[in-house]
Amino acid sequence: MNPTIAAVRGFGRVLSTVRGPRLSILIFHRVLATPDALLPGEPDAVAFEARMRWLAAAFRVLPLIEAVRRLRDGSLPANAACITFDDGYADNATIAAPVLARLRLTATFFVSTGFLDGGRMWNDTVIESVRACRSSRLDLDAIGCGHWACDDDATRLATIHGLLETLKYLPQAERQARVDAIAAVVGLPAASDLMMTRQQVRELRRYGMSVGAHTVTHPILKTLDADDARREIANGRLDLEETLRERVKVFAYPNGKPMRDYDRSHVALVRELGFDAAVSTAWGVSSRSSDPLQLARFTPWDRDADRFGLRLGQNLLRTPVLASA
To answer: 87 with 171, same domain?
Structure first.
């Protein structure tokens, strides 16, 4: 056996004996056909398969809803892990799900329904606008966003990061207006095939995967009033249930940082709406005492499979900081 896998497995077993079972939940967004210089944090198919093989060798991979039940009743095995995806990208259905199915692994895919069938998330509009820019400078002064370099991949990537940080926490309507204006500057088409169709969402179930709710338009919930937050969460779930003709049991908070992106009022709303579990993006692992509506998630960014695994092992020691009353 690979010595790194053996070390992480042994470490996890010891921790489980001393501290009780600990659930690792991994979060991904996309799996690309080939590497993309403007999406350096997203694995390509080869890298993703290597990571999944490593995970399957070192951890016991379970469906999320089963893992939550077993965490609650005390039957969770040592080194338990779940795989999740956020947002609803088409490559989840065309690349990630086939890889997982071939390896006999399961995952939960959290889908924002407002972008299905040709939509595009605001951050992807920024990325694709910068990709489409044919000038060495992107002049956005007219919309109050300044000038940005687009000389090469490195400067384009810096421009993407700068624009995303500039726009991320603006009120949703203002943010979308500015993003639409950026797209208009470079002539980016409105239609897109980045996100899944509803047919592809149904195909995930045929691969043996699970589907969870992730709102309609992926807003930062803390920027909404209570009624709008309820509509986003409830209507996203209803759309998926009508698409799949089954109950949707799990939810992922958009962006997912406790107290910055959601707070206890949103946890209470998710509980009131009857979800069995919900996931954040707080790093760490969950234990039997964890709130099932604020489960931690973490994914190492390392491309090397062993480093990926070692960082997962280190994460077993991390206690997540979650939204409090």
So the answer is: no
Is residue 155 domain-shared with residue 182, that is, in the same domain?
yes
Query: Residue 19's domain spans which residues?
Result: 3-118+192-315
DSSP 41: T
Helix (H, G, I), strand (E, B) or coil at 214: coil
Joined tokens for residue 176: 């979308």
Last residue of a domain, one of 159, 186, 213: 186
CA dihedral 86, 90, 94, 95 (to 10 degrees): -50
Rounded to 10°, the helix 45-58/3-19 angle is: 50
Helical H runs in the chain? 3-19, 45-58, 64-73, 90-91, 97-102, 122-132, 153-167, 172-186, 198-206, 226-244, 264-272, 305-315
C-alpha angle 85/88/91, rounded to 5°?
85
Query: What are the tens digits of pLDDT across the range 93-116?
Result: 999 999 999 999 999 999 999 999
Residue 213, helix vs strand vs coil: strand
The model's pTM = 0.96
| CA 11/CA 26 separation, integer angstroms | 18
Calculate the dihedral angle through the C-alpha atoms of 28, 196, 62, 284, rounding to the nearest 10 degrees. 30
